[in-house]
Design goal:
The chain is α/β, with parallel strands linked by helices. Helix content is 40%, strand content 16%. Helix 5 links the parallel strand 2 (110-118) and strand 3 (138-144). It is globular.
Amino acid sequence: MFLGVNIRLSNLAWLVGGFTAALFFTTLVGPLQTQPVLPSEVYENLRALSEPAQDVSAKRITAFVGIQTGFTTNHNNPKYNYENRREALRATWAPTNESERSKLETESGIVARFVVGHSPDSGAEAALNAEEAMHGGFMRLDLVEGYADLPRKTLLFFETVLRQYDPQYIVKVDDDVYLRLDRVPAAVEQWASVGADYIGCMKNGQVIKTPRYRWYEPSHALLGSQYFTHTWGSAYVVSRKAAALLTSLPAGSLRHLANEDVTLGAWMLALNLTHHDDRRMCTPVCSPASLATYDYPSCAGLCNAAVQLRELHTSPACGGPALTPTGALPILEPAIFFNRAVDPKWEAKALSQMARQRRAQAERVRVGAER
């Protein structure tokens, strides 16, 4: 038993070899593939690895909500004061004390924790320890916090969750996002009904190849000019199966890119998992459908979280009922349809290009005949 996942040691060597090869070629190719990269028997073994844990100590829950937070390094910049963000979150949508956390878990099957590693600064570490002793509600990870280590933090987060719980889904949300926690159980039912494994606001975009720009990717030569489809990193969801597959692999077998969101996207692309574009995970304003609200796409979160979290929480739009009068949670139309055999926009563009080519060829023939 390893991290709540049954692993057949006799199959591990060839399984990891096949998986690593698939990840390498998938990362090189970039666009989503319509056919599996690995042989079907490899996928069957991967699926076996992700069967629900038999460890009775892992408590079955609906969802684990991990609020990713950190240590303040510059107290003169209020935008990146993480203590103020956590204080604002406790004053708004995050459970404040053990009583509220217990009630949330009992009534909704939702566990919510601040997720953070450690700091090399003893003063910062002591301050966080004191905050944890006062409020509780932290999940501490065995790593030193830093932007360059966010992919590792994500893996450790998944590992730690699966060690302690058996969730249907794991929700990752940054501490500068307003989350409708009361809508998560209904959303889980919807995601499970379509077999979704990797959920959020999907995007792709240009690979940044110059160090002077933000989001620079040192491994750009492997990726080409355009990123594969992946979620915004501010708020996304993975199924238990997806998290179990990732954490069952030996350390060092997954490629880490510079940015956490595209790194996770590469991992998801290499596995036979179901992507789901859910625009409720990135609404710029609260609505009857919104799950995660932040200043999308101008900021990768709320631009001034400590202030805006409170403003949103007291607004009528964010304070509406969790569900509609009929007990439903509305669904927003996706921007990307993964189940379409044909992309209408691409097809229209291709037909237009072929028409231009035919006209150009006819013109060349006409000019040649006149000569």
